[in-house]
Specification:
The chain is built from 15 helices and 22 strands. It is an alpha+beta fold and about 625 residues long. Helix 6 runs antiparallel to helix 13.
Length: about 625
């Protein structure tokens, strides 16, 4: 087993303290440490902390210590972790580590296709009967509860609407039912189906509300109105979501801020994102230098000092670069991530009528409802506005004019100064529907269809729908996800670094000064500054620095904050001279010590320091 390099030992301990023994591979650049507990790596060797046994003093009580400066920067920290190890290291902040803001539209398209085909696909045929059979699929068989057949379920009523085409249209009970009967009986315009196809500019087997416009409406108004959904109706996925196989979505996408929730209450979503062979490999440069120092009354110890010279921020203990392939990679993600969830959509508790007839209905639009009954006055997450928004998305620019029976009848859309999408039915004796927008007419068909005259007959407010969907592709592959997470992690790299290391200052030994070097390479003793202490800790030194007299007279101070050849302005510094120096310094308790400082003649990176407490009367004339 390769031992950990001494100057990396505390970094390894900081990361490893969050892991069970031997859980992760923590490696310096030249090797791998696996199976060794972080604690064992930390305590190995004399430089692990202040020595409990001081060297013997001379006749004057002076003890001599040697401080060494390691000129090499600490090696990179390499974390090679499986799923459990990622959870051990980052689990406590996993809900704050954003992996991805997922575009919801592809997922909604996939979910809608599953819903629309829950009762078979024969509805796509050019036939009056859509031949629905909900017993054909697991989703369809989930329709109908409390003794109701699937034909009487609100879920099937919505499937019927979503799969309605000119060819299989069912407008029983609506204001357009009479027009259907007459046109089919007399064959006007090729029959009702052809009339709808021509005027709405649809193919005979094309849905009135196709998947695209319904998905847009769901994205912008059903998902987009939920407080947990981000800008652009993107779904935020965190590391916690991935570690929990998306079960956390039940809370994240549950009721919030007046929204009834996207995931049905009581249902626990599931979707494996991190496969059984998942690995995350991260390499980070350490900005923590570990210096040897002295606690004057105790002995040698170590001090962790932040030296971050890499932007854009300059206070990161670890320097991650998630954009680089050689610094970050993940593998073993699910190839085609899917999710099981139960989506619930509520309808309005009151009947929402179509605005039809009066000319002022042309002004009944999103943002300017004509009255409180208007669909545009209802919460946008309800079923009726979702349908209306889908309709306006599809027909807002529709303009058409068709005459029948040699001009005795007509259907005019967006004509004679009316807005696009506004339909006028020119039927003799005013037997046709009232003038209205195309989406208002579709809304009427939906309202009637959800509550009768077929088998359902639900009262208003009871036709809420919930679809239990399984294996719905989320709209991104594992390979795409592995790349997509990079900018999100990159933006959070400082927070991740601080979490992994915590407050590195808490692991400092209580030294009074340490050996370092200025920018020119010359050795210097650095007296600890407030920045070396844990934030919030009072600075205990009354007269920090090094002095020529035991009284620590300010005029006798020989250390300086502003030293030529050094960019450091935080520490009192004393250059190590070629010849022996005698100086005085005080510790945190106010005790004063005499220091005999001399370079090691055999090693230019070592300094020998003799330490003795000041005796009464020392230094007196």
């Amino acid at each position: 087993m390769m031992p950990c390099a001494p100057h990396a030992r505390r970094l390894v301990f900081a990361v490893g303290a969050a892991l069970a023994a031997g859980c992760a591979t923590i490696a310096p650049a030249d090797g791998t440490i696996s199976g060794e507990t972080p604690e064992e790596a930390f305590v190995e060797g004399p430089e692990a902390g202040p020595s409990p046994t001081l060297p013997p003093g001379d006749a004057n009580g002076e003890r001599t210590f040697t401080l060494a400066l390691d000129p090499l920067p600490p090696p990179p920290l390499i974390l090679d972790m499986n799923r459990a190890e990622v959870g051990e290291l980052l689990g406590s902040v996993a809900d704050r580590i954003l992996l991805l803001n997922l575009e919801s539209f592809p997922f909604l398209v996939n979910a809608l296709e599953q819903v629309k085909n829950a009762c078979g696909s024969a509805w796509r045929n050019d036939a009056r009967d859509p031949m629905h059979d909900c017993s054909l699929t697991a989703l369809g068989r989930s329709f109908g509860q409390n003794g109701r057949p699937w034909q009487a379920s609100p879920e099937y009523a919505l499937v019927r609407l979503l799969t309605m085409t000119p060819s299989n249209s069912d407008v029983r009970g609506t204001s357009i039912e009479f027009l259907q009967g007459v046109s089919d009986f007399l064959g006007i315009g090729g029959g009702f189906a052809q009339m709808l196809s021509d005027n709405l500019q649809l193919g005979r087997t094309e849905e009135f509300l196709d998947t695209h416009v319904v998905a847009l409406s769901l994205r912008d108004h059903y998902l987009g109105s939920h407080p947990a959904i981000g800008e652009g109706a993107r779904i935020p996925f965190t590391l916690a979501d991935a570690l929990a196989d998306l079960s956390t979505l039940s809370t994240k996408l549950g009721p919030a801020g007046g929204h009834p929730g996207i995931v049905a209450p009581g249902f626990v979503p599931y979707g494996e994102v991190l496969g059984p062979n998942f690995r995350m490999r991260v390499t980070a440069e350490s900005n923590i230098r570990i210096f040897e120092g002295l606690a004057l009354a105790i002995g040698p110890g170590q001090l962790n000092v932040l030296e971050d010279r890499i932007g854009p921020t300059f206070d990161d203990p670890l320097e991650f670069d998630f954009e680089r392939n050689d610094r970050f990679s993940i593998s073993g993600l699910a190839a085609e991530p899917t999710v099981d969830l139960r989506i619930a959509i509520q309808e309005s508790p009151i009947y929402v009528p179509a605005c039809a007839g009066p000319p002022e209905c042309t002004g009944n639009r999103p943002g300017s409802p004509i009255n409180l009954d208007s669909v545009w006055a209802q919460p946008e997450w309800q079923l009726e506005p979702i349908i209306a928004y889908a309709g306006i998305s599809k027909y807002d620019q529709l303009v058409n004019a068709t005459q029948y029976l040699d001009g005795l009848a007509s259907v005019e859309i967006g004509q004679n100064g009316t807005p696009p999408g506004w339909i006028h039915f020119g039927v003799p004796f005013n037997l046709g529907p009232k003038d209205q927008y195309a989406w208002e007419l579709i809304l009427e068909v939906a309202e009637v269809g959800m509550h009768g005259p077929d088998e359902s007959r639900f009262v208003e407010g009871d036709a809420n729908v919930a679809f239990t969907l399984t294996g719905v592709p989320v709209g991104i592959t594992g390979e795409e996800c592995a790349e997509a997470v990079r900018p999100y992690l990159q933006a959070q790299r400082a927070d991740i670094a601080r979490h992994i290391l915590g407050d590195f200052r808490e692991r400092n030994d209580p030294v009074d000064f340490y050996l370092s070097s200025i920018d020119t390479g010359a050795l210097a003793l650095y007296f600890v500054s407030p920045d070396d202490l844990t934030p919030g800790t009072p600075y205990p030194y009354v007269r920090p620095g090094f002095y020529l007299d035991p009284g620590l007279t300010p005029e006798q101070k020989v250390s300086v904050l502003d030293m030529g050849g050094s960019t450091d302005r935080l520490h009192e510094k004393l250059l190590v001279a070629p010849a022996e120096q005698i100086v005085y310094a005080g510790n945190a308790k106010g005790q004063v010590f005499r220091l005999r400082v001399a370079p090691d003649p055999l090693d230019a990176l070592r300094v020998r320091i003799g330490v003795a407490p000041v005796t009464p009367g020392e230094g007196a004339p």
